[in-house]
Amino acid sequence: MKIGFIGAGKVGKNIARHLINAGHQVVLSNSRGPESLQGLVDELGPRAKAGTKDEAVHSDLVMLCVNWRDAQEALKGIAWKGQILVDVTNAHIDSPPDISLEGVTRSRVALAKTARTSSELIAEWAPGARLVKSISNMPMIWIDDFSESKPKTVLFTSGDDPEAKRVVIDLLSGVGFAPIDLGSLREGGAMYQVGGPLSGLEFHLKRRLR
Ligand SMILES: NC(=O)c1ccc[n+]([C@@H]2O[C@H](COP(=O)([O-])OP(=O)(O)OC[C@H]3O[C@@H](n4cnc5c(N)ncnc54)[C@H](OP(=O)(O)O)[C@@H]3O)[C@@H](O)[C@H]2O)c1
To answer: Is 199 in the pocket of ligand 1 (CB under 6 A)?
Structure first.
């Protein structure tokens, strides 16, 4: 599969490497243009390309790997044509837009009934994309682990388009992770976005238990 990236910092780079190791192609983009990514694509090898944001979104699936404060700007002006967009961001409440103002409080997800989760906001900012939230709960220590013996990290996954969610779950399973479907962007997203009851928890399966 060809997978585009909006954002190619610490997380984007390592997710790209996992995907490349599983045989996929990646197109990386950032805010500064393809030239600034040349060193990174050289390091990642021939399955990686640097591109503009437009080139990155012309992929089978797109990963949004920017910081929450940059997400709305990063998504501006993109004409989505039904591509799957994976929201990898964590909406830290000390970083604007503050989703706690949307009614999602630290421990009481029930209060989120009338509020929008961070992924619902991302979906609004990317009309025409099929949004799936995933990978965001993955601890950096596991993103950084490329060893054969690495545990299978549990990746919470949610979305309102069952087919899009299935594609993401199959993709991440194929890369060696353990994605778990938590339901919709609203109900599932609220569980593991920053402040939700599953936020900050780390789950992984030891490979030898398979
Ligand atoms: N365990 C974890 O730490 C973890 C796990 C999963 C997900 N996450 C989430 O992953 C996201 C990325 O984290 P990170 O550590 O990779 O951040 P990072 O190293 O700061 O990288 C951010 C990337 O976003 C790009 N960017 C910023 N504004 C942009 C724009 N307007 N258009 C296109 N690209 C833009 C930056 O490009 P420039 O350098 O050119 O500006 C950079 O490539 C965060 O939301 C984080 O919460 C973190």
So the answer is: no
